[in-house]
Amino acid sequence: MTATQSITPSQSRRRYEWRVVDIVVASVIAVAVGVIFFAWSAGYSGIAAVTAAFPPLAGLYSGGWLIAGVLGGLIIRKPGAAIYCEVLAAAVSALIGTQFGMAVLLSGLVQGIGAELIFALFLYKRWNLGVALLAGLGAGLALAISENIMYKVEWTLDYKLMYGIFAAISGVVLAGLLPWLATRGLAKTGALSAFAAGRTADV
């Protein structure tokens, strides 16, 4: 009998249960990234002006709003972590005073779900670079779909498709690769010793 086969149902449940330290660290991550979200949103006006000739290019900037979900998922490694971190980070940016107002809460939920679905697809057992990139991709596609429906109704189909492609690329790089590198860096410092992410090499 292998080690995996010997795991009891109660042990399996405990692996997915949130501890107090999970909630605290996830909240700290979300608050910190929420401040980044606020700053990122402040820079959007300049990006919109630069991409005015071809608006879909702004999708390359969108990955900055997707970091919390992937980072939280990679570190906490529990169901709901991506959604929790993304929504809380969006709430923090809204409370600080982002130009997009409380609408960011819905965006955070949708984007968090996009990342969460990828982690769930791998049953919350795989946390390597490939999974991180896919989570960023999932969040990017979720962002593009929701924004095309809610904010870009007047755009032509080709514009919407191009925006989706650029948002997906941004999601992979900014929300997938960067959080994975950040998690590895934090693990090497010992800051994640209370988490599986700090004790394994597949972060």
From TrEMBL:
Keywords: Membrane, Transmembrane, Transmembrane helix
Any one Pfam family match given in the protein's UniProt record, by short name: ABC_cobalt
Transmembrane segments: 20-40, 46-74, 81-98, 104-124, 131-151, 163-182
Record keyword Transmembrane present: yes
Name of the protein in its database record: ECF transporter S component
